[in-house]
Specification:
single chain, 506 residues, alpha/beta, UDP-N-acetylmuramoyl-L-alanine:D-glutamate ligase, Protein-Tyrosine Phosphatase, Chain A, 3 domains, eleven-stranded mixed sheet, 16 helices, 27 strands, binds ligand UAG, binds adenosine-5'-triphosphate, magnesium ion binding, cell wall biogenesis/degradation
């Protein structure tokens, strides 16, 4: 992998990102002879991972000039790309947007790995990971496991070995490096989740997906380091529409009319799915008696009957049937057959999403990652469909982020739960008792409420309150997480499912 200086300049000029370069204190627009032949063998945005042959990107809210100085003095760094000039003895390539520059240069450095992969990308407030897992299981059938996955939870670049992800959508440099590794590993397909932050911070700048799927939208991720408003959040997410060759849209998404207008304003294939035949290409029918199956039928928008038929799945919850359908459509567009789709959907499980455990008295424990208003509300209504008895909900809300979730949770709990046990969920630098109080304050209707900050004890209490098969215990928010974030650090945690399993065994 390498990139020539002239090529760097050419790419930046073409995209209108190039401003000037500063070589040995002199300012240039055209490349001076002294640097024209330079080759870069490494790209990095971390000053600690630089050397003489690195092109370094200065970016980030917490970047400090001393990082760059140290890299120049101790690692021999000679070139950096930046939006501002620093007083260091290195050549500066000044650009108008460093994150866009980084994405474009990373693509060229790794020789455009996206051209050798069929890429499907999911966005939406909820269901990205679950849908990505459905697509992975389907395309594993189609490609014999030659499908890479970049999800919030796990990443695989060889189709079979998984490692924990840092971000939902990686920084562009990491993204194109990973894509290249997937290509070198012989992968033919890639499934990824695209967060609103990915668009906001240009992590996928210049990348065109084969299929982009818009699942749903509801207010979330609004706060000091994320989005200033819902409008900004929604706008960023919608960028997927103009950055995909084909689009799959959910008829049930809020603001659907706007999504449809924007999708149809571009000349590309648009498939719409939903839960009834109006205005969709395909819709999912559910049957109360058959929790683990659904039927697909073509809707009125077209004669799209390729997927018609009955499907079985392991994940409960009607929203998961929608997720399965979204993944099926996307997979179909990148080469999966109906049989492969049926097999893949039937095999899909997702850690921490709708995992269930039956207690000795017949009550059911649900472990689910629901951690915002839309997901908690959908989760509780799904559980309510299956249980006529008491619904006991254990949950907390994180510290130092998503502050609006606290009042959202209070509202949902007071409308949909019978017994509420407030506990810790990544309190970070905040006091979990104060967070619990904030949730409680937002409960508009009185509900039996307990505050037990120790999450294991909170689960034990919930389990002790369930009495018979009609009752349900819902452990919401942490999903498959095996840690609690306390004071900025990850503290080991057994995990909701394991805690419940041990409690259920007495
Ligand atoms: C707003 C945003 O995009 N933040 C991400 C971004 O931060 P940043 O560019 O501001 O960089 P920074 O962390 O302030 O660090 C400054 C820079 O100094 C560099 N550095 C640091 C130390 C040193 O010695 N030398 C050095 O050069 C670092 O490598 C970095 O480039 O780049 C960092 C990696 O370089 C990410 O860790 C960070 O994610 C933050 C922590 C984060 O949590 N982001 C969340 C909001 C996020 O993106 N979430 C979405 C999911 C949301 C959803 O569910 O929809 C996601 O896609 O994951
Ligand atoms: N289509 C959906 N509509 C509403 N809620 C959903 C949907 N799909 C999943 N959920 C709920 O949201 C939770 C998180 O699901 P998932 O991890 O698939 O979403 P995500 O978009 O990846 O979330 P995040 O961005 O928070 O990582 C699930 O545990 C479930 O409770």
């Amino acid at each position: 992998m390498r990139l020539n200086f002239n090529r760097v300049r050419e790419i930046l000029v073409k995209d209108n990102l190039f401003r000037e370069m500063i070589v040995e204190g002199k300012w240039f627009y055209e490349t001076p002879e002294t640097v024209a032949k330079r080759e870069f063998y490494n790209l990095s945005y971390d000053s600690r991972q630089t050397d003489k042959d690195t092109l370094f990107f200065v970016k980030g809210m917490n970047f400090k000039e001393e990082f760059l100085k140290k890299a120049v003095e101790e690692n021999g760094l000679e070139f950096y790309v930046s939006e501002v000039v620093y007083d260091v003895e290195a050549t500066a390539i000044i650009v108008s947007d460093v994150k866009k520059a980084m994405s474009l240069l990373a693509q060229a450095f790794y020789d455009f790995p996206q051209n050798d992969l069929k890429i499907i990308a999911f966005t939406g407030t909820k269901g990205k990971t679950t849908s990505a897992y459905f697509a992975k299981a389907i395309l594993d059938e189609t490609t014999k496991c030659k499908t890479a996955l970049l999800s919030t939870m796990n990443t695989t670049l060889d189709g079979v070995t998984f490692f924990k992800s840092q971000l939902t959508t990686p920084e562009s440099l990491d993204l194109f490096r990973m894509m290249n590794e997937a290509r070198e590993n012989g992968m033919t397909h890639l499934i990824m989740e695209v967060s609103s932050q990915a668009y906001k911070t240009s992590r996928v700048y210049g990348l065109l997906f084969d299929v982009g799927i818009f699942l749903n939208i509801s207010p979330d991720h609004i706060g000091p380091i994320e989005h200033p408003s819902f409008e900004d959040y929604f706008y960023c997410k919608r960028q997927i529409l103009s950055h995909s060759k084909a689009i799959v849209l959910n008829r049930e998404a809020d603001y659907f009319e706007l999504l449809k207008e924007e999708a149809l304003s571009q000349e590309k294939q648009v498939l719409i799915y939903g839960t009834s035949k109006e205005d969709v290409d395909v819709f999912v029918q559910t049957n109360k008696e058959k929790v683990f199956s659904f039927t697909l039928e073509n809707g009125e928008r077209s004669n799209f009957s390729e997927l018609n038929g009955e499907y079985s799945l392991r994940l409960s919850g009607d929203f998961n049937k929608g997720n399965a359908l979204a993944a099926s459509l996307a997979s179909l567009l990148v080469g999966a057959s109906k049989e492969e789709i049926k097999t893949g959907v039937a095999q899909t499980t997702v850690p921490g999403r709708m995992e269930t455990l039956e207690l000795a008295n017949g009550a059911t424990v649900y472990v689910d990652y629901a951690h915002n208003k839309i997901s908690l509300s959908s989760l509780l209504s799904e559980v309510r469909k299956q249980h006529t008895g008491k619904m006991i909900v254990v949950l907390g809300s994180p510290g130092n982020k998503g502050e609006s979730r606290r009042s959202d949770f209070g509202e949902v709990l007071s409308e949909q739960a019978d017994i509420v046990i407030l506990t810790a969920d990544d309190p970070n630098y905040e006091n979990p008792k104060t967070i619990a109080k904030e949730i409680q304050l937002a409960m508009k209707h009185p509900r039996e409420t307990h505050v037990e900050i120790d999450r294991e004890r909170a689960i034990a209490l919930a389990i002790s309150l369930a009495e018979n098969p009609e009752d349900a215990v819902v452990l919401a928010g942490k999903g498959a997480d095996l840690y609690q974030i306390v004071e900025g650090k990850r503290v080991e945690y057994l995990g909701d499912f394991e805690v419940a399993r041990r409690m259920s065994e007495g």
